[in-house]
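Figure caption, in words: inputs first, then the predicted bound structure.
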Amino acid sequence: MQEYVERLKKAVLEYDMEGIEKLANEGLQHGLDPLKGIEDGLAAGIREVGQRFGAGELFLPELVMAAETMRAGVKILEPRIPSGQDTRHVRRVVLATVQDDIHEIGKNLVGTMLSANGFEVVDLGVNQPSAAILEKAKAVGAEVVGVSALMTTSMPRMKEVLSQAEADRVRSRSRFIVGGAPVTDAYAKEIGSDGTAGDASGAVVLVQRLVGLGR
Ligand code: B12
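Bound structure (cobalamin present):
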């Protein structure tokens, strides 16, 4: 329901931490598609806040309040994303945000959508050194490793993950994908990854294609 999508966006823009849970629940009762609520409502709101922060119109406390509002909304909507039907193969995906970067909202959404589509997701969390990501990928036999970075300053860590993967010979065993707002197709290619996607649904399509489940 478009009305609730708009209201969720507005709630993030107004840092309505108290009202967001009630609004999200109300939306679900009125037939809101939870994924649409997250991507076109909450995420659209947080991106606008990010732009205003970048332009110096808002300050860190406001960014934090908006992020908290988004997280509270995601907590209600995320469990209601329907599971996919394709559970024939359990395939492991390791996800992490790179070292020096604590942004996790987008990565978590990617993880949720992959789980909902039958993948087993091992989420290492944020601020993860390259070595820890590669160790885990080896330990669990990850078919795909997904690395997230939200800042131009932390993006070079993605290249580091890929170079180390080459040196550790993990590169030939797993496919590596990268993502986060500043990541472009050109950058993903330049650093030698297997691709990127601009949102969580795109990430699912990419991973499905890489493991041979493409439709
Ligand atoms: C929310 C937010 C925060 C929150 C994070 C809360 C949390 N728990 O994650 C808080 C307030 C903590 C925060 C802190 C900071 N932030 Co901040 N933050 C943001 C903001 C507004 C939104 C990020 C977000 O959650 N977006 C919503 C999600 C849904 O979108 P997404 O992350 O892009 O993810 C989607 C896709 O990119 C993709 N995707 C993501 N990961 C992956 C991975 C793979 C493998 C794939 C395939 C796809 C994929 O799918 C996702 C789902 O759709 C951005 C602005 C922006 N435009 O991105 C700034 C922004 C990233 N932050 C910024 C900054 C500067 C900071 C701070 C340094 C501020 C400070 N002075 O302390 C600190 C960082 C500290 C650190 N060391 O990391 C800058 C970065 C500038 C730069 N250098 O590039 C931005 C761009 C704001 C700005 N315009 O200046 N931030």
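The mean pLDDT is 91.
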